[in-house]
Amino acid sequence: MDHYAGIDVSLESSSVCVVDGTGKIVREAKIASETAAIIGWFASLGLDLSRIGLEAGPLSQWLYVTMKEAGLAVELLETRHVRTALQTMPVKTDRNDARGMAQLMRLGWFRPVHCKSPAAQETRALRTARKLVQSKLYDVEMCLRGILRGFGLKVGPTTPKRFERRIEELVAGRPTLEIVSKALLSAHKALLHEFDMFEKLVRAMARKDKRARLMMSAPGVGTIVALTYVSAIDDPSRFSSSKRVGPHFGLTPGKYQSSETGVSGRITKIGDAGVRTALYEAANVILTRPVKGSGLKSWATKLARRAGMKKAKVALARKLAVILHRMWVDGTPFAAHKAASTVVATA
Fold first, then answer.
1. On the CB side of 317, how many CA atoms lie within 13 Å of its CA?
2. How much is the pTM?
């Protein structure tokens, strides 16, 4: 008889449940969230496990790769799908979650998730660290401006290089403000140094990555957008059609249909929010800055007149996601005439 397992992964320990083909619970345990412990526990069962389910998450990807290498039939489960399926349980515990996932694996009612390659995860880690330093750098600058504004001292427009000098000029002769500004400027200087380091790393990574350079041949796509898109897709062959990329990143309208009722709503916003943001920013660049030789801008401009600028940017972001995937699959740089024919065909 076939057997199925579900694992609810936590930081210190994981709840595991094994069921047979009829849904009867065979074994349950609480195991340390370490690959050696989990693989060893499954090996000690002596059972033929058809499928093992792991809910997608930071620790799950690491466990998935190791368990896959050990020859276990493990699957990464889509988080929203699992959460919705387990909402029917009145009591939520790690043990019940593991039981529920085991039943999902037995019934086959699950949606597998692509496990990112180590290179893609490293790229995402670099982007995440860069974004964090950038946000803290902005927070320090706004904090200094806010403090000085309370004393009637206006920093005004400045540049990263002139910012420190401008603050020192304003607080000169005010001992308390000098102490406060010195501490915050010290943090600002350190953050600026680290941010410049991340910028160099990101640009160097984009130059070395053929896929990123290919994406950057499209209008509005810079190093951050290219690396964000490439690391999120990871393997373009997992999409049977380029048109599936837009819905994958939540850039298509949601729909509710029941009986005679049919309503189209806002975009679903499922998938990687970072990719949606990057594509939207690329669309904003195309629509608000001079772009030559592309039918994308004229198509989006006409749409903006009918539906508004915001909807046009979202539609252009979705179109850009499809075009970038097709460029990647074909291995060809952006071609304005092909993009123009694509938007005409789908208009």
1. 29
2. 0.88
